[in-house]
Structure of Integrase:
Amino acid sequence: MTERLDPIEPSEAVRMYLAERSTEVSEATLKAHKSRLKYFLRWCSEEDIDNMNTLTGRSLHRYKLWRRDDGDLKQVSLKTQIATIRVFIRFCESIDAVEPDLHTKVLSPSLGDADDHRDVMLDAEDSVAMLDFLRRFHYASFDHVLLKLLWHTGMRTGSVQAIDVEDYDPESEYLKVQHRPETPLKNKKNGERLIALSADTCAVLDDWLAHNRPDVVDDSERVPLLATTHGRPHKTTIRDAVYRWTRPCQYGAECPHGRDRDDCEATDDQKKTASKCPSSVSPHAIRRGSITHFLTEDVPEKVVSDRMNVSPDILDKHYDRRSEEVKVEQRRGYLKNL
């Protein structure tokens, strides 16, 4: 250990980190980081670590294994947890609390094929950061409206593509999802429903329609709500936009993979390489993240099932990615007054 390191307790390092980030990130992001770091503090207490100076790559690896087993976390959830630790350790380097470059020894869990297809989702804090950036720099643009709708409604790509201007009721604040021959829904007539919108989402839609939506119709002379200068957007256009905007560097976040944006293969938008970013996700991963977020916020499963047009059994099997730790805390909240 070098002599220049200044002794500091883990709790004080976390306090300083959160104070620093409070001016850089949204309240939701700060809350998420605080929640993740409380497990790190608990681990330090259990391991009798009272000085950040003593941390090594080996001890941080032990923490990763402890966090995985303690929370019964899936790989995708563990990856998010460790990404926060990596950023925290990098901050600790800047205040001489840990050895230089220690953050490079915090290895992010790899995701296998099963994780990529079934468990990958857009995390709520990443969604907040992405939508905050779009609101600030690309307000009421095609991309802003698209990502806002996908996250807020949890709709499938085909559904958001199929909505016409006439399906939006700004007074009653809802969208009407309809099955039509030219734009069929996955569940056909069974996929038809009304989706309630927040006042904020309606405000974005209103400004999109008033100022930015191209004055076009599709090949069937219908007026699509989401439109490009060529008419109704193709599903490839939607997927490309999602991959592009779910890269952390796209909305100003630090790359969790330690890449340099100038050298990264996933930053060439002309060649549409955004999907090569390990953090970028597909539209379906936004749907999975949205459903999980609604459930985590204690929205009843029946409400989520109806809103997202997914049966309770399929919702539980393929979409609900809450950890057992989150579920037990939610159940505790219902039971504590009994």
Notes: The radius of gyration is 22 Å.
